[in-house]
């Protein structure tokens, strides 16, 4: 089954690569890493976190109280890492194809322009 | 500027108590963090709407799916038993029981799909509203038909709700198509289909399958069998690969997964075969439906519409065999929680049940006689349902065996195999969905090895 990650899931998993983070950190990290293109609402984030946890792509890694506020930390699972890796490979493959076609189009345009010059 | 914590706490009221107990403090803290960062005192409009959607949808969880399924089964069985035991039961009572059963089954299905992550919260709520509207209009259509029939029979003019049969039926069709379209679109979102063809396909499936689904859910035991299926889906284990590691995947494993003959390669081959079988089932299923409804006009073997319907049904039973095989291959290709025996064993029994129906339709269905082939099919169907449930429910072993055995007995004793006859019209649609879902893709996440595999490897 060729399952792909939705943009929020992609950026949440990306935010968790190599780091254990709580909800607000994930929000900040997704906004920062995507240069503002992915701005999640808090409730949307928790809806996505629940779904990703159910699918085994992330796992809760303990609750802590910091400055009187409850934090739940999440980490990437091996299955989440595999899913993100597969998605990145697919995106890179798509980008390679598009880049090659653009380069070919530019070359033929330059060749045509040279003939008419 | 200080944050008004009480206004954020009010957002939590949308959520069920159990959810608030487990996650409420965490969500509230994050909401307060975000508000402090933005310099806000109160929630934004978007936050209020998102909390309403997410909180309401959170009520449609696994527990809801199981309870609603049980209500659907009980209402359907009660209607069936009353129909047999109390010959004086009115069409109204039966319509009410069937309606409650159908609505419960539909809501249970949505809750199960949401719980398994196949559709999002917003889609769940919209589909729930559209689905309930469709089923209520469907019930009113049935009532309108009963009243109109009685009035026409008595030779009096058809008035009031009895005269609204057609608009009610069209309204039910439109609402049903919206509900099913949203569900199918949600399921297809996990595939490589682009938005425009995905939405077009979902709309097409919704328009075609809405009347068939209405017929299925309002058929005797149709909603019961659907609800039983939903309850099984709801209690199936769903966590995959829950081993938490913060570090990237080891290089050795990447090489293993890409090498020929690896798990990923095997899964791709299984899915390709499943895809081919599902397309065969789709084509054969379409042929069966077309033959059932038009065969009397062009087939020499179909002497009248009843014979054509019977022959079309036998084609549909046969077309379900490659569909079942395709489903088996898809399940085999996925990360496994149960052994292959527990996938293929029940599926083989389902094929045997279809065989029973096939021979019953050839021998005695037209005369209404129940032949030994039908009894064999019923027993195989009950045994298959029981076997499917036992290794998959997250219950202690004894409880799981009891649940499976009881479910199998109920299925066999109540003649639920009759519902399969109505469901067989859904074969081409189901086969089409399986074919699309099993299209070989390039981005298949690697499956963690099952306990059995790990033991075998060791």
Radius of gyration of chain B: 25 Å
Calculate the terminal CA-CA distance of chain B, rounded to whole Å.
61 Å
Instruction: Quickly count the domains of chain B.
Output: 3
Order of strands, main sheet of chain A, comes to: 1-3-2
CATH topology name of chain A, in short, is: Arc Repressor Mutant, subunit A
Could you tell me the mean pLDDT of chain A?
87
Low-confidence stretches of chain A: none
Molecular structure report:
- The complex is a heterodimer of chains A (117) and B (458).
- Chain A contains 4 helices and 3 strands.
- Chain A has a 3-stranded antiparallel sheet with strand order 1-3-2.
- In chain A, helix 1 crosses helix 2.
- In chain A, a hairpin with a 2-residue loop joins strand 2 (58-66) and strand 3 (69-76).
- Helix content of chain A is 62%, strand content 16%.
- Chain A has 117 residues and is of the alpha+beta class.
- Chain A has helices at 7-16, 23-33, 42-54, 78-116, and strands spanning 21-22, 58-66, 69-76.
- Chain A has one domain (7-116): Arc Repressor Mutant, subunit A (Orthogonal Bundle).
- The longest helix of chain B has 36 residues, at 263-298.
- Helices cover 75% and strands 0% of the residues of chain B.
- Chain B contains 18 helices and no strands.
- Chain B has helices at residues 5-11, 17-38, 45-58, 62-85, 91-115, 121-153, 165-188, 195-218, 222-235, 251-258, 263-298, 305-333, 340-363, 372-389, 397-413, 417-423, 427-437, 451-457.
- Chain B starts with a helix and ends with a helix.
- Chain B has 3 domains: 5-47, no CATH class; 61-236, no CATH class; 265-444, no CATH class.
- Chain B is an all-alpha fold.
- The chains are: A alpha+beta (117), B mainly alpha (458).
- Chains A and B meet through helix 2, helix 3, strand 2, strand 3 and helix 4 of A and helix 2 and helix 3 of B.
């Amino acid at each position: 089954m060729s399952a792909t990650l939705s943009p929020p899931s992609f950026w949440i998993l990306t935010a968790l690569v190599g780091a254990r983070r709580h909800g607000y950190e994930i929000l900040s990290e997704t906004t920062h890493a995507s240069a503002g293109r992915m701005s999640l609402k808090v409730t949307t984030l928790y809806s996505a976190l629940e779904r990703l946890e159910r699918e085994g792509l992330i796992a809760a890694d303990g609750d802590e109280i910091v400055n009187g506020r409850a934090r739940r930390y999440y980490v990437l699972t091996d299955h989440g890492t595999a899913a993100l890796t597969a998605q990145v490979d697919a995106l890179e493959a798509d980008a390679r194809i598009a880049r090659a076609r653009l380069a070919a189009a530019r070359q033929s345009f330059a060749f045509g322009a040279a003939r008419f010059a | 500027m200080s944050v008004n914590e009480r206004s954020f706490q009010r957002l939590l009221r949308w959520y069920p108590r159990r959810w608030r107990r487990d996650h409420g403090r965490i969500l509230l803290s994050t909401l307060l963090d975000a508000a402090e960062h933005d310099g806000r005192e109160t929630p934004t409009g978007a936050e209020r709407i998102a909390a309403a959607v997410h909180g309401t949808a959170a009520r449609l969880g696994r527990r809801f799916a199981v309870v609603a399924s049980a209500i659907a089964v009980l209402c359907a069985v009660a209607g069936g038993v009353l129909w047999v035991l109390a010959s004086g039961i009115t069409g109204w009572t039966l319509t009410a029981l069937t309606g409650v059963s159908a609505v419960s089954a539909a809501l249970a299905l949505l809750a199960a799909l949401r719980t398994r992550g196949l559709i999002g919260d917003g889609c769940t709520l919209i589909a729930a509203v559209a689905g309930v509207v469709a089923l209520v209009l469907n019930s009113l259509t049935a009532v309108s038909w009963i009243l109109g029939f009685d009035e026409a029979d008595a030779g009096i003019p058809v008035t009031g709700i009895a005269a609204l049969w057609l608009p009610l039926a069209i309204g039910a069709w439109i609402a049903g198509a919206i509900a099913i379209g949203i569900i199918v679109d949600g399921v297809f979102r996990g595939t490589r289909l682009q938005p425009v063809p995905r939405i077009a396909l979902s709309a097409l499936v919704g328009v075609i399958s809405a009347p068939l689904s209405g017929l299925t859910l309002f058929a005797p035991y149709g909603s019961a069998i659907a609800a039983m299926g939903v309850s099984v889906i709801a209690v199936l284990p769903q966590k995959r690969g829950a081993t938490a590691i913060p570090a990237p995947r080891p290089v050795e494993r990447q090489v293993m997964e890409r090498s020929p003959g690896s798990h990923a390669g095997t899964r791709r081959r299984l899915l390709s075969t499943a895809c081919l079988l599902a397309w065969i089932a789709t084509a054969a299923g379409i042929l069966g439906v077309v033959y059932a409804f038009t065969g009397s006009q062009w087939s020499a073997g179909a002497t009248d519409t009843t014979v054509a319907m019977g022959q079309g049904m036998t084609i549909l039973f046969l077309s379900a065999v490659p569909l079942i095989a395709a489903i088996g291959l898809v399940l085999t290709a996925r990360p496994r929680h149960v052994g292959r025996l527990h996938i293929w064993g029940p599926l083989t029994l389902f094929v045997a049940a279809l065989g029973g129906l096939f021979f019953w339709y050839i021998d005695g269905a037209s005369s209404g006689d129940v032949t030994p082939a039908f009894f064999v099919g019923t027993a195989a169907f009950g045994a298959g349902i029981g076997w499917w449930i036992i290794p998959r429910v997250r219950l202690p072993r004894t409880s799981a065996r009891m649940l499976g055995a009881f479910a199998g007995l109920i299925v066999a004793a109540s003649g639920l195999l009759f519902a399969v006859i109505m469901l067989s019209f859904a074969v081409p649609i189901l086969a089409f969905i399986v074919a699309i879902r099993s299209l070989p893709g390039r981005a298949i996440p690697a499956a963690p090895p099952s306990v059995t595999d790990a033991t075998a490897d060791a």
